[in-house]
Amino acid sequence: MKRPTTGRSRHSGGPNVGRPGFAWALPATVFFALFAIVPLIGVAVMSFTSWSGLGSPEFNGLDNWNKLLGDKVMMQSLWLSALLTLLGVVIQTPLSILLGVWAAGQQKNRAVLSAIYFIPLLLSSAAVSVLWRALLDPNFGIPGQLAGIFGGDGNLLGSQAGAIAVLTFVGAWQFTPLHTLLYQGAARSVPPVLYQAAEIDGAGTMRKFFSITLPQLRNTIVTSGILMVVGGLTTFDTVLILTKGGPGTDTTITPYYMYRKAFQSFDFGVGSAIALVLVVIATAISLIMVRATGYDKMNSAQEGI
Fold it and tell me: How many Å apart are CA 190 and CA 303, to the nearest integer?
């Protein structure tokens, strides 16, 4: 005889409630389509046209794409964008993990120090860039007052190496708190029983960190990494305010080059092609990271399991 169902899910033990219907996702789907898909299609179409912002766009086939393939500044901008993104990931990831794990603890004055540390996250990128532009002024800023430390004329933005170092530092100063917050939440969700078992086995602080904490943060590391990559590839206002792509074109990253082409040279066709390149690269890297790390196959509610 077939036993009657109890209305409980055999996997979760909770009520056997079905998945929400498509209607639940409809508002978000419509919003995403109107403000993401439709504009993206428009940019893709415009990349095959010639338009100065006046009159009607004229179809020019692959002319814009041929220009980009032979454009040395465009190739350099892709390399610079990749370099700044890589530097951001390499510097911000370990800092965020260490600070996040620390902030998840019970240290004295931890809450106050964490609140102070998160202040840069509350500021806009434009405000942060203006602030550091003033602080790094070679005449009246910190380098000018501490010439013995910074050397030379104190103009850190006057060379490619100095400008890239400043952009990397300013990005880390502003956005490391965001990723620290992600790791703080993830570290607090690690089951305490794992640490208790490790202590019984005689594991020290370092062993618990590398054997328990880091593996449990795997999903968060991937999520944070994707945010860093996408954010690094789309950085614009920091470069616009701090370096204006200089000296020369030494910090002309791809988003800034797109701005120059579209809104300074009024070549919206080429600007649209550059924007499309950025979208494709950022999407491809994100998908590769998700697949390579196995993030898309994680089913557990607990990190790293």
Answer: 7
- What tens digit of pLDDT does each residue of 198-256 get? 999 899 989 999 999 999 999 999 999 999 999 999 999 999 999 999 999 999 999 99
Instruction: Assign residue 200 the CATH number of its domain.
Output: 1.10.3720.10
CA distances from 99 to 59, 77, 207 (A): 52, 32, 18
Residue 55 included in any domain:
yes
| Structure tokens belonging to residue 119 | 């202040």
Is the Cβ–Cβ distance between 222 and 295 less than 8 Å? yes
Q: Is residue 206 part of a domain?
A: yes
Nearest to 226 by CA among 297, 146, 292, 141: 292
The count of residues in the chain is 305
pTM for this model (two decimals): 0.86
Burial 127-145 (b: 16+ CB within 10 A, else e): ebbebbbeebbbeebbbee
Segments forming the whole domain that contains residue 177: 26-297
Question: Rounded to an integer, what distance in angstroms lies between the CA atom of residue 266 and that of residue 262?
Answer: 5
Asked whether the beta carbons of 251 and 157 are under 8 A apart, the reply is no
Q: Crossing angle for the helix pair 218-233 and 268-293, nearest 10 degrees?
A: 170
Token pair 């880091």 is at which residue?
214
* β-strand partners of 8: 15
Q: What is the pLDDT of residues 129-152, one digit of tens each?
A: 999 999 999 888 888 788 777 767
Tokens of 271: 């600007």
Structural domain count of the chain = 1
| 286 neighbors 228 (Cβ within 8 angstroms) | no
**Which residues are within 8 A (CB) of 72 and not within 5 positions of it... i.e. 6 or more apart?**
none
Amino acid at 180: T
